[in-house]
Amino acid sequence: RLGSSIVNLLKSIMGAGMLALPAAFSTVGAIPGIFLLVVAALLSAFGLHLLVLSSDRLVREGKSPARKSNFAVLAAPTYPKLSFLFEGAV
User: Fold this and answer.
1) Of 55, 54, 36, 33, which Cα lies nearest the Cα of 44?
2) How many other C-beta atoms can be found within 10 angstroms of the C-beta atom of residue 75?
3) Is 82 helix (H, G, I), strand (E, B) or coil?
4) Which of 5, 25, 41, 43 is most buried, by the most CB atoms less than 10 A from its CB?
């Protein structure tokens, strides 16, 4: 399960990066391209950090078993009837 998750993430990241990054760099140049890449990486890391904090809070409150959180479980307190859509969108 962990191996398939790693492969899936690598496939998604590498596929988008190989196609989009050269086009972005050729459009805006090297310095702005590097700056935008760093900003995107920081925002992505911050979003993942928020997801981990949310998951940990649900585990502490007893709303989710440890290591069983997913996007549907995280969205359930906010949109209980539509939480399955969050899982499908991701």
Assistant:
1) 36
2) 19
3) coil
4) 25
Provide the token pair at 76.
Answer: 């359930």
* b (16+ CB within 10 A) / e for 18-50: eeeeeebbeeeeeeebeeeeeeeeeeeeeeeee
Q: Cα-flanking dihedrals φ and ψ of residue 85, to 5°?
A: -65, -35
75, 86 Cβ separation under 8 angstroms: yes
Q: How confident is the model at residue 31 (pLDDT cuts 50, 70, 90)?
A: very high
Q: How many CB atoms lie within 10 A of CB 13?
A: 11
Does the structure show a pLDDT above 70 at 1? no
> In terms of pLDDT, which residue wins out, 53 or 77?
53
- Cα separation, 2 vs 36, in Å, equals 30
Structure tokens at 17: 């990066």
